[in-house]
Specification:
Order of helices and strands: EEEHEEHEHHHHEHEHEEHHHH
CATH class of the largest domain: Alpha Beta
CATH topology of the largest domain: Rossmann fold
Number of helices: 12
Shape: globular
Length: 287
């Protein structure tokens, strides 16, 4: 599904002494099937923005079109919208509550009044989509699982609603390195297999550089920058001025160049750096 944000403004506690402008006159488009990284310092407006996509928040002015439909029109059925737009908040495993993994993932589909056969199919499919073994895990309590497994079960619960847009707010927050890599790998695989439109909110520039097609940078409630990872991270000084950073790999490559090694300065992932260093050793670059 495509998304078009048009002149979106959100003001908390408008017309009171505590009025706060969270986002102001924001405009951008997301194409169907794009993988977008949304970054910005704390308080930049990211969380406020993503809560508009399934109408958890309503704008003070402006609107959002999803597949050319204004989602804030009175006749829009919010239940249907929220099926299409899945929103995974930080630490979604804290919202698990059922006695088994199966029951927790099935909770949403049951509320759609689907047949038991369809519910079974959705639960099994969503468990497999997040890289877990259905037969091994379906009857276990979610509270017996590791942190990374619980996080995947929570995401599976959203996927069981069959959204066409998936929004993930810091999906790897608080996980150990193994759990983090597992979660992010499954999200990347999910995008490749399903071609969902995905919006990933993250403070990790490494994760953003490795995963997304395009980055949207927010600063003080506005869109400060947008482009591919290479385009956005080439503005290192601008990002630092916003309280952000560039991937550590980019800093390493800049350091190598400062030492006189002729390596590219637009490398932002470990894979690219590995290839560049191997080429340097083989003499493909000049020292």
């Amino acid at each position: 599904m495509s998304i078009s944000v048009q002149n979106l403004t959100h003001i908390y506690m408008k017309d009171t002494p505590f009025e706060t402008v969270a986002i102001k006159d924001v405009n951008f488009d997301i194409e169907d099937g794009e993988f977008i990284g949304l970054i910005g310092h704390t308080g930049s407006g990211k969380s406020t923005l993503i809560q508009h996509f399934n109408a958890l928040l309503k704008p003070t002015s402006g609107t959002i079109f999803i597949d050319d439909v204004d989602i804030f029109k009175k006749e829009i059925e919010l239940k249907s919208l929220r099926q299409q737009v899945g929103l995974v908040f930080q630490y979604p495993e804290y919202q698990l509550f059922e006695e088994t993994v199966y029951k927790d993932i099935a909770f949403g589909p049951k509320n759609l009044n689907l047949s038991q056969e369809e519910i079974d199919l959705r639960v099994r499919e969503s468990v497999e989509l997040v890289g877990l073994d259905f037969e091994q895990i379906k009857d276990r309590s979610p509270f017996e699982l590791s942190g990374g497994q619980r996080r995947r079960v929570a995401i599976a619960g959203v996927l069981a609603m069959k959204p066409r847009i998936l929004i993930l707010d810091e999906p790897a927050a608080g996980l150990d390195p193994r759990g983090k890599n597992e979660i992010l790998s499954q999200i990347k695989l999910l995008h490749e297999e399903r071609r969902l439109t995905i919006i990933l909110v993250s403070h990790s520039m490494e994760d953003i550089a490795k995963l997304v097609d395009r980055i949207i940078v927010m600063n003080e409630g506005t869109i400060a920058l947008t482009g591919t990872p290479k385009e956005v991270f080439s503005h290192g000084e601008l990002l630092e001025g916003m309280g952000l950073d560039i991937p550590h790999i980019a800093k390493l490559m800049h350091g190598l160049r400062a030492r006189g090694l002729d390596v590219p300065d637009n490398i932002y992932t470990i894979e690219e750096a590995k290839e560049a260093i191997l080429r340097l050793k083989k003499g493909d670059y000049n020292a």
